Amino acid sequence: MPHRLVPLLFLVVSFAARAQNSAITINPGSECQGLFKSVWLSIDGQMEAAVTGGSPNRAENVPPGTHEVTVNCVEGFTARVLLTQDITFPAGTELRMRLKGKTLELVGKGAWAPPVVEVPAVEAGRGREGPTAAMKKEAGSFLDDAENDLKDLLKLLQDEDDRCVGKVSARVELAREALGGSVSLETIDDTRGRVDATREASRKCGNSLGRDVNKSLDRVTKSLNRAARVLQ
After folding, report:
1. What percentage of residues in the chain have a pLDDT greater than 90?
2. What fold, for 133-231?
3. Which residues neighbour 162 within 8 Å (Cβ) at sequence distance 6 or greater?
4. CA of 165: how far to CAs of 149, 160, 200, in Å?
5. CA 138 to chain centre
6. What share of the chain is helix, strand, coil (3-state, %, to 5)?
7. pLDDT for the residue 144
């Protein structure tokens, strides 16, 4: 009997993780209308959807956190960037936004959960197929970017004499240690937690140093989010 619980347990855990993700719907308005024009929506550099100009564009299963959202107007072989903006996605939420000038304006939001998909039960003793080698390689490159940004942050802190530097540096080292784990969502979640702790410690730094630390941590977070999207 116990082995029959394995598929159910996996499905519950998998759905619970996806249920924390978010969605976004963007109305481009009149910024890209025309029979031969289309609106392309990208998140963290990866294209999510393309629709005929003027129609709302939508992306789903976006991990919670801050992501770089880019909206392009494409006509033939020419692409024009309408905007690039950092958007914070709350867990389990759909954001409804519209393009207004060079910014995205929030017009509404609501609860969102992924549709329920029936997954064949896993045979006893076989386990679930995980990310492919190619997926791990791509995600690993984003994790390398995150580690390089943390290294650069440590170098920056070495040149500072602010009394908060010691505590912030210690937490940056802990974040680097977390990245030394396997290329997995668990490693990414662990690192995110340590990055958040570093950000909290930096609030006690001077305004100038605090801003520099947060800019570096924003780059780290974007790389972690990109890696997570590849592995999901």
Report:
1. 16
2. de novo design (two linked rop proteins) (1.20.1440)
3. 205, 206, 209
4. 17, 7, 13
5. 15
6. 45, 30, 30
7. 92
133-231 has the same fold as 22-111: no
22-111 placed in CATH 2.40.160? no
The residues spanned by each domain of the chain are: 22-111, 133-231
Residue matched to tokens 């702790």: 197
208 vs 199: CA distance, rounded Å: 14
- Nearest C-alpha neighbor of 62 from the set 86, 31, 37: 86
CA–CA distance from 134 to each of 8, 74, 140, 143, 227 (Å)? 28, 29, 10, 14, 12
Q: Is the pLDDT of residue 88 over 70?
A: yes
User: Side chain identity at 156, as an amino acid letter?
Assistant: L
